[in-house]
Write a structure and sequence with these properties.
The structure is a homodimer of 618-residue chains.
Chain A lengths: L5 H13 L3 E3 L11 E3 L1 H22 L2 E2 L5 E3 H6 L2 H4 L1 E6 L6 E3 H13 L6 H13 L5 H10 L15 E4 L3 E4 L5 E5 L4 H6 L1 H7 L6 E10 L14 E11 L9 H4 L3 E5 L1 H5 L7 E4 H6 L6 H16 L7 E5 L11 E9 L2 E12 L1 H10 L5 E18 L1 H8 L3 H9 L3 H14 L1 E6 L2 E6 L3 E15 L2 E8 H12 E3 L7 E3 L10 E5 L6 H14 L4 E3 L6 H10 L4 E5 L1 H6 L1 E6 L5 E5 H13 L6 H4 L4 E3 L2
Parallel strand pairs in A: 3-10, 12-14, 24-25, 24-26
Antiparallel strand pairs in A: 1-2, 4-9, 5-6, 5-7, 8-9, 10-11, 11-21, 12-13, 14-15, 15-16, 16-21, 17-20, 18-19, 22-23, 26-27, 27-28, 28-29
Amino acid sequence: MPLMSNSERDKLESTLRRRFFYTPSFEIYGGVSGLFDLGPPGCQLQNNLIRLWREHFIMEENMLQVDGPMLTPYDVLKTSGHVDKFTDWMCRNPKTGEYYRADHLIEQTLKKRLLDKDVNPQDMKNMEKILTTIDGFSGPELNLVMQEYNINDPVTNDVLDALTSFNLMFETKIGASGQLKAFLRPETAQGQFLNFNKLLEINQGKIPFASASIGKSFRNEISPRSGLLRVREFLMAEIEHFVDPLNKSHAKFNEVLNEEIPLLSRRLQESGEVQLPVKMTIGEAVNSGMVENETLGYFMARVHQFLLNIGINKDKFRFRQHLKNEMAHYATDCWDGEILTSYGWIECVGCADRAAFDLTVHSKKTGRSLTVKQKLDTPKERTEWVVEVNKKFFGSKFKQKAKLIESVLSKFSQDELIRRHEELEKNGEFTCQVNGEIVKLDSSLVTIKMKTTLQHIREYIPNVIEPSFGLGRIIYCIFDHCFQVRVDSESRGFFSFPLQIAPIKVFVTTISNNDSFPAILKKISQALRKREIYFKIDDSNTSIGKKYARNDELGTPFGITIDFETIKDQTVTLRERNSMRQVRGTITDVISTIDKMLHNPDESDWDKSTFGLSPVKI
Amino acid sequence: MPLMSNSERDKLESTLRRRFFYTPSFEIYGGVSGLFDLGPPGCQLQNNLIRLWREHFIMEENMLQVDGPMLTPYDVLKTSGHVDKFTDWMCRNPKTGEYYRADHLIEQTLKKRLLDKDVNPQDMKNMEKILTTIDGFSGPELNLVMQEYNINDPVTNDVLDALTSFNLMFETKIGASGQLKAFLRPETAQGQFLNFNKLLEINQGKIPFASASIGKSFRNEISPRSGLLRVREFLMAEIEHFVDPLNKSHAKFNEVLNEEIPLLSRRLQESGEVQLPVKMTIGEAVNSGMVENETLGYFMARVHQFLLNIGINKDKFRFRQHLKNEMAHYATDCWDGEILTSYGWIECVGCADRAAFDLTVHSKKTGRSLTVKQKLDTPKERTEWVVEVNKKFFGSKFKQKAKLIESVLSKFSQDELIRRHEELEKNGEFTCQVNGEIVKLDSSLVTIKMKTTLQHIREYIPNVIEPSFGLGRIIYCIFDHCFQVRVDSESRGFFSFPLQIAPIKVFVTTISNNDSFPAILKKISQALRKREIYFKIDDSNTSIGKKYARNDELGTPFGITIDFETIKDQTVTLRERNSMRQVRGTITDVISTIDKMLHNPDESDWDKSTFGLSPVKI
C-alpha cells in the first residue's frame, strides 16, 4: 500500500475540517497548539470506537473498569517516577525565546541533511544509525549529537542554549490554601494500581484479572505539531492485567496462537539493517522468546485483531520492540503497535510488561500491602533469618517504646538481618534507629537466627502486563487509512470506514421536492429508529449527486433515496458508498438488508446481502 | 416518600463501598477530599447513563455533539466572566489555617440554632428567611450575617477572618515557556459557543439547532464534604440550544404540553410561605408566563421525563426557579432541577436562558462575527443614522490614515452617531479618537444623517437555552432513590435500578458443583452474548442465598440458576430482584423473555412477560 501523497493529505485534512470531524480548539481566539475539538462526525466516530473497544476488551475478558480523576496529588506521581522521569529534553533560542524538543529537532535536521547530494557514505551511515536509535538517547547523548552536528535554530539559524530537561506534566494546586500540589495525570494506569486491593477483593481474591480505564490524560508537549498526532490532552484506554510473576501463561492463548503479526524486534533494529518487520505467528514469537510471555503475546494478538476490525490497513501496521534504553523506567519488555501514516510510523498502542514496579513502589511509600495471598495446596517449608525478642527483659527495659522498637526490627530485610547477626556475633550488640533515636540492643534482649517454618500461604506482588491505547491517534490513523479518492473526472474524496466505525450509518434523501415525500421520509425514519440504526435526513435543496458526494465525505456507508416510483410501489434505491452501486427494493426489504449488514458481521458482504434486491443501472 | 434514615444511609454507603460502586480516590495515600473513583459497577452504571442521555437528547433531537479539551486559555474564561465571577466567599481561621465556605457555614450554623428551644419567634423568622434566600447573597451580605450572628469556627469557636473571594478554577500553564496561563474548564459550554460558526455551517445555516457535550469539568471547592454530591472533578452533559431571540417557540412543544411537573417559582420562594412546589403542566406554566418561553419549557419537560426513566422518584423531584440575584451573570431565567436525597434538595440539572450573553462577549473580544444571517422573504425598510465621508477632501487631508479613521467612524453605535450629529450641528465639528490620537472632523469632511435602506438579510446573535446536567450527582441520587431494604429478618439491602440503568443485567449461577454444569454455563453465556445482554457468572463456592444477596446489592435485575433438573430437561429458574419471585422455563424461553424485557420498554412488565413460564414456589 503506497503512502498518501502531499496533495492527498491536503485533501484529507481539508475534508476533515470542512465536514467538522475536528478543528483546532479556541480557533477564534487564535487557537492553542496541541489542543483540538472533535465536531459531530468526529464525536460519533469516537463514540463508536470506545464502544467497540469496550466490547472487544472489557466485555470479552470481563475486565473491571475503573474511572478516576485526572487531578492527581504530587505524592502519587513522585512515587510512580513521573515527577523525576516523565520529561523531554529541550533547548531554547535565547534570542527569540522559542523552545524546541531536542530529539525532534535532531531528527528533522538529520533527515534534511541526508537528502544532501554531497553527504559522504560514512556520515550517512552515522546519521542513519542515530535516526534509528534516537528514541533511546539520554540527555547528554542528545547534547553530544547537537554539538557534533552543529544543530542550530531551524528557522533563524541562531545558536541554541544547552539542553535542559522539562517535566511534561501540567501542574496545579488543590484547595483554598493552595498547599496541595497536584498534576493532571499523564496516564490512567496509576488510578488502577492504587485500587488494586479493592479490585482483587471484588474478584474474590482470584488472579489473573484485568482492570481497564478509558479517559483523558495530559502531556505538556514542548512544541506540538503534526495535528491530531501530537496533542496536549488525549483520550486513552488502558488495561492493567495482573498476573502471577511465576506464571505468565494465558488461558486463551491457544485461541490466538496462529494470529500472524509483523514484528520488528529489538535485535533487528540494532542490526542496523533495512528495517523490515518479520511476519510471524504470535505462537512462534512467544515460543522463540522474542515476545517475553504468553500474556503479553495474547494482548498483542488481540490488539492486532482490534485494529484491523476498526479500519487500520493490515499492511501499514507493525509491532516494534523497544530498545533496551528506550523502555520506560518501569518496563521489562515493551512492544509498540505502530501505524504507518503520511507522517511516518506512529506509536498508537504500547504493550508493556511493567513487572511489579508500580505496586511495589506504592506499597513501599504508603506502607499498605498490595499483594495476592495464595493458599498453597501443599504447605511449603521456608527457611529464613528471623529476629526474636526476649519479652521479659525487652518490655521492662524499653517500656512504652518496646512495641515500636519491635516493629522496626520486624521490618528488617534478610540482608539487614544477616548484617545485624554478624555484628551481634562480633560485638555482642548492635544499634538501630527508632524515630531518629539510636537504640542499642544486645544478645540478652534479642536473638537473630535461621528458622524454618511451614508456609500455608504464598504472598506475592503480582506483575502487570499493560496494553495502553492512544485513541485520539488511532482515530487519526483511521482517517488516514480510510480516505480514498475516486478515480474519475472530479476525483472526489470519501472515507471507506468499516460499518461499525462510520459516524452515520444511513442517509435518507429524496430525489426532489414532492408533497408525498415527507410522509414516506417519516415512515422510513421511524423504521430506522426502531432498529436503532443511526441515520441523517439530507433534505437540502441540492442535486442528488452533490448529496451523495457530501455523505461520502462523511463516510456514510448507505444511502436511501426516495423517488417518484416510491409513491407508486413503496420501493426505494439503496446505494453503497465504496462501489457507488445501487439496488432497488421495498422500504421493508431495504431496511432489513441494512439491519442485517450492520448488526451481523457475517452478513456485511454487499453482494450476498443484497442478493434479493434488483440492481439499478446508473 | 419518606427520606432515608441515618441508619439506612449508612447501610447505603457501606453497600456502595463494599461492592465498589465508588471509593475515595488515592485512598491508600490518605485520599483527597472531593475526588472519587468509580469502580466496576459504578462505571457500568455511568456508561448506561451516558448512553441513555445520548439517546434521549442527542439522537432524538439530532443535536450536534462536540468534544473539546478541558485545558482552556485564560482569555476565553476572562471573556466569559469566569475569571471575575466564578467565585465563592470563604473565611479562614487564622489560628488553624482551616478554610470555610461562608454560605455553607452560615447555613450549618443557623440550622443548628433553629433547633434551640429558646430561640424567639422573630429570630426564627429572620433565620428562616436567610436560609431560603442565601443562594442569592453577595459577599458583603454574607459578611453582615456572619457578624450579626457572631458566627465563629464551628469546631474551635475561634473568631474567623473577614470574608474573601476565592476563584474556583484550577489554574495551570501551557507550554515550555510557562507563559500561557490556562484553567481547567468550569463547564463544557464555552467550547460549544466558540464553535458556533462551524456548527451553524454544518447545519446548513438553519436555526434553531442544539449542540451538546459530555465531559469532565472542574471546580476547586473550598471544603468539599457530602461525598459524591460535592466534588472537584465531575462529569457534565450540557446542551446549548441556539434560537432566534424573537421566536423562542419549539416545534415539538405540543408533544410535552401535558407533562406535569412540580414547580417552585421565584414568587413562591420570595413569599416566605411554606415552600411546597405547585404541580402544573408545562403548557400552563409557559402560558401563564411563569416559565419564560416554550423552548425552556420543552427542555424542562424532557429533563423531567429523562430523570423518571433512569430511576429518580417522581415525588422527590422539583424544578426551583432561581431568585433574581441568584442567577448566573449570564442568565435571564433559570430553573434548577432539584432532587431530594438524605442530604436535602440537590441541584442536579440547570435549565437556563443564557440569552445572547456568551456569543456577544466572545464576538466582541475576538472581532469575529457570531451571527445568523436570515434571508428575508420580503425585504424590510430600515431607517438609521449613518455617517458618510466626503471622499474628495477626506482622502487628501488624512492620506494613509483615511481608511483607519473611516473604519472607526463605521463602528459608531446609533447613540454615538446621534451625539456626534448634535455636536456637528452645534459646533460645526466633532472629535474622535483613532489609535490614541485625537482627530478633528468638520462638516466639509463628514455628513451624519438619517437614511432609509432596504434590508434583504436580517443578521442577529442567537439566544441560548441551556440544559446542563451534573451526571455524577444524578448517579448519587439514583443510588439514594433505588436503595431499598428488605422487610425480613436479615433486612438486606438491594438496588431497584431500572433495567436500562442496572450495571449488570443478568447473573448466571449454579445450585452447586457438578460436572455437567460448565457446559450448560457456556451455552447460556454464548446465548446471552449473542443478544448483547451484559451478564456475570457467579461461580463462587457460596450458598445460593448469599449469591442472590450479593447480586441484589449490585442491583442485578435477573438471575438464572442452573440446577439438577437442568441436566434432564434444559430448564432453568429465572429470578426477579425486587419481588424475589421465580419462574421456570427452558433456557431458550428464559433468555428470550429477558431479551424482550430489556430491549422493549413496552414489555418490561414481569407478570406479562413471564406469562408463558411456570411459577416456582420458594
